[in-house]
Structure formats: C-alpha cells, structure tokens
Amino acid sequence: MDFNIHRGSSVNSAEHGASIQLSKREVNGLVTMKLVNENTFYLANLSVGSNSQNMGVLVDTGSSDLWVIGSDNSYCTGGIAKRDTSDDVDCSVYGTFDKSTSTSFKSNNTVFTTLYTDEMTASGEWGYDTVSIGSLTVENMSIAVANMTDSSMGVLGIGLPGMETTYTSMSEEDAHMYENFPMKLKSEGIIMKNIYSLYLNQESASYGTVLFGGVDHSKYIDRLITVPIINSYPDYLDNPVLIQVAYDSISFEGKTLLHASDTAILDSGSTISYLPSAVVNAAVSAMGMRYHKNIGAYAASCNSFKDKSFNFTFDGADITVPASNFLINFAGIPSSICGLGMMESDQTVFGDNFLRAAYVVYDLDDYEVSLANANFGESSNDEDVVAVVSTIPNARFGASTGTSNTATTTRAGRASTSRSSSTKFSSLRNSGAGHIAFPEVLTIMGSVFCSALLLIL
User: Which regions are flagged for Low complexity bias (predicted)?
Assistant: First the structure.
C-alpha cells in the first residue's frame, strides 16, 4: 500500500495529492498500498459498499479500527441531521458513506464510540461491508460508520487487536476482538502472516509505502534488528495492546540526551514525537535554541542544523534521524526560523518525524518490530520484495533480546522477557491501562488526530 502525504493546517484543511493504489503483487502473499504524502498525515483512498463509494482515511499504526464517516454525520456541512453549531466540517473533501444505498452493508446493531486525546470524537454503529483498495477487494470487513464526528475523515487503524474499541470500550461481558484489516488479509489467504513494512519516505517525497505480508530489502540500509513489542500491562493482559518497544539512548551530534533506557510507542498517526521533558530540554540546549515570546516556543535559524542529526539506539539498531525532521516552521515569522518538533509528555511516542528515517517491519503475529535506517538512494527503487512466512529474512535479534519473545516493562522502563497472566478485564479498565479515559470511551495516546490538529507542519 503506497500512501499519499497530505499537507495543510489541519486534517480538515489539508489538500489531496495522488490517488492510492493497492493491489495484490505477482509475488504470492503480498499486498502493496500507496499512500499520499502531504506532511500532516498519511492518506489512503478506499471504496466501501456494493456501489463502491469512495473516501479517504488516515492510515494509523496507533489504532486498530476501520471507521468511516456516514453521510448522515451531523457535523457535516449540509448534513442530513444538521446541528446548530459553528463546529461543522466539510465532509465532501474526503467523502462519506451512505450505508442505506449499499446492499452489502449489514449492521450488527452494536454501538461504536471512540475519543481521542485532543477530544475529537466519533460515534455510530458497527457493521460489515465490502472494502476495496485499488484492485483488492475484501468482503464482510468489519467497519464502523460514524454518524457523529467532528473529523472530516475516517481512520484505517492497522494496530494490534487489543486496541480495538470493541475490546477496550465494552463491558467485560461484551468485550471482544475481531479481525481488523491486516488480520483479515491473512485469514483470507491474501498474505501469509500478519506483518507489514512501513516506509514513509523523505519529507519532500509525495508518497510512501506500506507492504502487507512482506519486506522490501531495497528500502533499508545494512540489516534489520528485531526487538520485542512490550506488554505494558502484564498484570491485566496476556499480550501487548500498543506497538511499544524499548530504546536505549538518544543523542544529538554525539551529545547524550537520554541517560536511561525507556519505552516508546511507534505511531504513524502522530505527526510529531512526544518525549520526556528532560529529553526535550536537553535537545533544546544541545541545539542552541532560545525561547521566542512572539511564537511561544524555542526556535533557531533553520540553517544552523544542516547536516546535523539525532541518533536513536534500539538494542543494537542505531537509527540516524536528520535534525531537519524535527524542525517546524511557524506562521507569522520568517521561514528561516525553525522550532523543535518535539513535545513534552510522560508517554514517549515516536511519530512521523522519527519514522521517516527508519524502515520498520511490524510483526503482529509474533509481537516483534524490526528496524533499520531507511534507504533514500537510487537503489531504493530496485524492489527486492519477499513474502514473509515465518521469521523476517535478513533480520537478527537485538543483543539483549536473543530470542523471539514478548517483553514486559519493569518500573525502570527497561524491557524484560517475563510474562504474566491477565486478570479480569474490569481490573484493567479501572487501572487506566490502555488510556481508558471514561468507562465506555477509549483514549488513544499519540492518535492521528492529536498531532495533526495540535501542531501544523
């Protein structure tokens, strides 16, 4: 799946780029999706229903549900159930779904509700319908149709099933997991393993790629290093719910910014990265930035960081990120002045400005992630695609991991390879694990909406 990158001041104002192309490759067990790159978010175009209604959705590794905007969304300008409010959005930009005109849509009479960290909400109903992306068609796909949301587009979540709202926002007796998009591709025999590779490409590029079921060896440099996905809630869950890994260090031009290992969520739906305040402050100091009252942020001359870089270490995998990836421009000040695209947070999230520098393979069957530096040279166009059946070709485990295993976090934040059985789901809900903000609503940390709307890139 190649994807388009959309640029704009927000999800609602970003402009379309090239259209998506997703098709089954000649190599068995592979699907490629092309996404449009406009720098605010990553867009995939799909069609839903017996009459192939077209719409755009955000592609997000930080959530797990596919939901689209219903034609009766009361927030839409000119919507069927029009509200008396100034918060309306233009839903015609990315399209809506009229389930009443699709003969293949089947409602299961279950309520869909989700809340994101920027307080953007979506609610509606769950059902099944045919979903097509390019020449690929998947029938009886679980899909939520939102008839009340203040977003102008839906979401294609491709994360772990433990983040599905049917599991996290339901009562204990009703909680369940279902086959989301990548799981459905596997069960239908389209791919052989629930695995996909993410290549966001450079910021200046117009597209990137998600390869379901395989690895493209031309898209990375040297060798992939495999690290376990961490189970942050071993007292409540048997398996991880977030795509979260341990990292050892962060440095800028050789100056260490992080003095102890920590964990981070890898989230393609987050435009920027969120790091501990100590790391952000150390980065500001190391980069020689100063506080500007007129913009309310630390900034410096953009040219000061040419050919400079950050280094992120993951158990033997060293990912070099150009400093320019973490620079942002502000409205109302000269474009030669740049701010830092990092925000302080107790929960570390490596968003697009980190992920653009890496080639990341998400193995959701074995709860592992493999990383390497992305290849942006001419050789990246010479596809070397291999379908994955078991282990990832040309990948080795990190020095301290040794074997494939799901890791858990200790209080120090370091990964360990122990495993604990889950307790009752009600205990998880009451604990706040999984960022459950309200009894029936899931808050997704580092969501696609949170970063896209809080910061304009």
Answer: 400-423
Domain of 314 in residue numbering reads as 218-397
The proportion of the chain whose per-residue pLDDT surpasses 90, expressed as a percent, equals 52
Would residue 420 count as lying in a domain? no
What is the Cα–Cα distance from 390 to 120, expressed in whole angstroms? 39
Catalytic residue among 267, 315, 363, 366, which? 267
Residue whose token pair is 């402050």: 281
Task: Tell me if 449 is assigned to some domain.
Answer: no
Do the beta carbons of residue 250 and residue 413 sit within 8 Å?
A: no
Greater model confidence, 202 or 22: 202
Burial class (CB within 10 angstroms; exposed 0-12, middle 13-18, buried 19+) of 135: exposed
Instruction: Report the C-alpha gap between 449 and 200 in whole angstroms.
Output: 18
Q: What is the pLDDT of residues 410-432, one digit of tens each?
A: 433 433 333 232 333 333 333 33
Range of weakest confidence among 57-61, 192-196, 215-219: 57-61
Residue 48 lies in a domain: yes
Which of 2, 60, 216, 262 does the annotation list as catalytic?
A: 60
Give CA–CA dist 217/131, Å, rounded.
29
Instruction: Specify which residues 255 forms β-bridges with.
Output: 252
Dump the DSSP string for 14-39: ----SPP-EEE-SSTT-EEEEEEE-S
118 among known catalytic residues: no
Q: What is the pLDDT of residue 134?
A: 79
Number of domains in the chain: 2
pLDDT in tens, 163-181: 999 988 777 778 899 999 9
Do 286 and 154 lie in one domain? The reply is no
Same domain, 158 and 259: no
Q: Are residues 203 and 223 in the same domain?
A: no
Closest CA to 279 of 226, 345, 208: 345
pTM of the entire structure? 0.82
pLDDT digits (tens, 9 = 90+) for 273-292: 999 999 999 999 999 999 88
Considering the domain architecture, whether residues 156 and 295 belong to the same structural domain is answered as no
For residue 356, tell me if it sits in a domain: yes
What does residue 6 show for φ and ψ, rounded to 5 degrees? -100, 135
Tell which residue, 229, 232, 194, has the closest CA to residue 401: 229
Residue 154 pairs in a beta bridge with 57
Q: Which of 348, 368, 397 is the last residue of a domain?
A: 397
Hunting for tokens 């795509």 — which residue is that? Answer: 243
Q: How far is CA 309 from the centre of its chain?
A: 23
pLDDT at 164: 93
Of the residues 345, 373, 397, which one is the last residue of a structural domain?
Answer: 397
What are the C-alpha distances in Å from 456 to residues 60, 110, 144, 283, 438? Answer: 18, 35, 28, 20, 28
